[in-house]
Amino acid sequence: MTKKLLLSTDQSAKSQKKGITLPKGMVPVLKLAPMPSDANFNGDIFGGWVMSQVDIAGSIPAIEVVSGRLATVAVNSFIFKEPIYVGDLVSFFAKVIKIGNTSVTVEVEVYSQRRLAAPVSESNNHEAVKVTEATLTYVAIDKNGRPRKIEKKV
Ligand SMILES: CC(C)(COP(=O)(O)OP(=O)(O)OC[C@H]1O[C@@H](n2cnc3c(N)ncnc32)[C@H](O)[C@@H]1OP(=O)(O)O)[C@@H](O)C(=O)NCCC(=O)NCCS
Fold first, then answer.
1. Residue 98 C-alpha to ligand 1 middle, in angstroms?
2. I need a surface site. Which of 3, 65, 84, 138 has the fewest CB within 10 A?
């Protein structure tokens, strides 16, 4: 884990403003460019859009663990740290942090590269900003929608 990623978890608002790079050595499970239709009435990206994408992003490593059908049982925490703007390129990083009997808990971190389509200028250096962090729990379910034991790989 890079120093910058460690910093990003509890860094102050001041250092967050300075801009950071995307986590090194990690591949995002999802990368999206939100559209004007994803904005709220202030023109920033709607929180519900972000929550939906975070749910999808978190489910990707969870599906690999449960090998089959699953359902989201809980959003344990969800923090909108900074807004996302139309024109940003948004990267979703997800990692499994706990595997239970029937459930998998995943941590999702979201970074936005500012106005990637706009030219680089004094006020726009395409910096990456950590915009959201969340923890979600998914449950492996059977064909009747009931919890199913996860076969743990040794
Ligand atoms: C997911 C669902 C099948 C779980 O059924 P349930 O009877 O509540 O399950 P259980 O109480 O046996 O709990 C199953 C697992 O979920 C975990 N869990 C349940 N509620 C939880 C919560 N609020 N937070 C974190 N984990 C939770 C339990 O700890 C257990 O994990 P473990 O087996 O690894 O120890 C059921 O709640 C459901 O169908 N929910 C609706 C799902 C849905 O529609 N999601 C949105 C769309 S995907």
1. 14
2. 3
